[in-house]
Amino acid sequence: MNTSELPLTSTSTNGLFLKVDLYNVKKAALVLRALNHKLRQQILKLIDEHGKMTVTELYVKMRLEQSVASQHLAILRKAGFVKTDRDGKFIYYSVNGERMEEVNQFAHDLLS
Q1: For 53-102, how does the pLDDT look when each residue is reduced to its tens digit (9 = 90+)?
Q2: Which pLDDT score is estimated for 21?
Q3: Contact 83, 94 (CB under 8 A)
Q4: So what CATH class is 28-111?
Q5: Which helix (H) or strand (E) holds 11?
Q6: By the 8 A CB rule, do 78 and 34 touch?
Q7: What is the pTM of this model?
Q8: Closest-CA residue to 76 (of 48, 111, 50)
């Protein structure tokens, strides 16, 4: 058995063989975990309220260490929840509304 797959034979599937892609399940869990954090939720809310912000604006406004703000922004960026736009030496972060809607729809479908 490949460690990234979980083979299942279930009576509920009429004996059909199912493979669960554990690699993609793990990646999806990391995306959801990125959103399930109070500080990252506050960061997203603040960015959304301002439209776009630099890391400096964020850490000053939230009274965080620069490294903490940067680490959380990196997690949000990797999960696709924020987009970046470079303007000279400044990088502006904005909320990726399409990604937020995708996750919202995924959670709705998962719970339906």
Answers
A1: 999 999 999 999 999 999 999 999 999 999 999 999 999 999 999 999 99
A2: 84
A3: yes
A4: mainly alpha
A5: none
A6: yes
A7: 0.83
A8: 48
